[in-house]
Amino acid sequence: MRDFLRSRRARLSPQDVGLPPTRRRRTPGLRREEVATLAGVGLTWYTWLEQGRPISVTAGILAAVGEALRLDGDELAHLYRLAGHVPPAPDADTGGTEPGVPGQVAALADEWAPNPAYVLDRYWRCVYANAPVELLLGKAAPLRSCLEGFERGPDAERVLPEWESMAPSLVAQFRADAARHPDDAEFARIVGRLSRRSESFARLWAEQEVRDSGLGEKVFQVPDGRLVFERTALQLGDRPDLRIVLLRPKPGTGTRERLARRAEARPG
After folding, report:
1. Which residue ranges are recorded for the region named Disordered (predicted)?
2. Domains of the chain
3. What is the pLDDT of residues 5-20, one digit of tens each?
């Protein structure tokens, strides 16, 4: 904490933050009292913060200090972590033809072929999928959300035979994600809609179970058998509103061979 805040002070001049220029200083950068004034906190308190003393620090004060020091998003998140706080989640970027999906992430999903890969936003809506995903679900049943099985009802078992056993884990993981964004009303709207449409979801949500894991299995039902995949969900460090889900055929299940046959039989 001490080294980080000192380094951020040292790179700023009074003119950088709208203060009048002063005579030549013995050390470069802003003085502690100037940072304290800009942040609206006491000099003694800021000094203790910079010294890394065990004082009580609120997220609001950290934000004020970050603004005074002109911290960018990565630096502010680092300050929050140094102080033992969870960094604020950045707003999702929804621009572009594929909402919020950087080209490098879409390319990674495509390069994962012939194995399936897709990208989810923070609400678990699918915002990008590679061609092998279509092989699993078909054009008539595109992947819209990892929670849509609750809205499909009995039809979910047709494509996802393990749906009934998967559902509790899905709801528990969705609760963990919702807790990361307590001020995002969209999570409450999703929970309300699914609770009205699915007795199963309402019951599972009421159980208050929570789970946070990016590893697991996913099983699909296809005409020639079951496809069993190992699932790995990776969150992007600079885009925490997105995660890419990579499905790898589970060894010993014949999934890789069945997937290859389906790809060969695909028209065109």
Report:
1. 1-29
2. 2-82 (1.10.260.40), 103-265 (3.30.450.180)
3. 999 999 988 888 887 7
Structure tokens at 201: 């979801």
Output the pTM of the full model: 0.69
Pairing of strands 239-249, 117-120: antiparallel
Long-range contacts of 103-110 (CB under 8 A, 24+ apart): 105/236, 105/239, 105/242, 105/244, 108/244, 109/244
Identify the residue whose tokens are 């680092």: 78
Q: Which of 162, 1, 137, 21 is nearest to 69 (CA)?
A: 1
Q: Helices marked H in 83-198 — which ranges?
A: 103-111, 131-137, 149-152, 156-159, 163-179, 185-197
Provide the pLDDT for residue 268.
58
* Model pLDDT for residues 40-82, shown as the tens digit of each residue: 999 999 999 999 888 888 888 999 999 999 998 889 989 998 9
How many whole angstroms separate alpha carbon 14 and alpha carbon 104?
A: 40
- Report how far residue 192's alpha carbon sits from residue 258's, in angstroms, rounded to the nearest whole number: 39
CB of 239 closer than 8 Å to CB of 179:
no
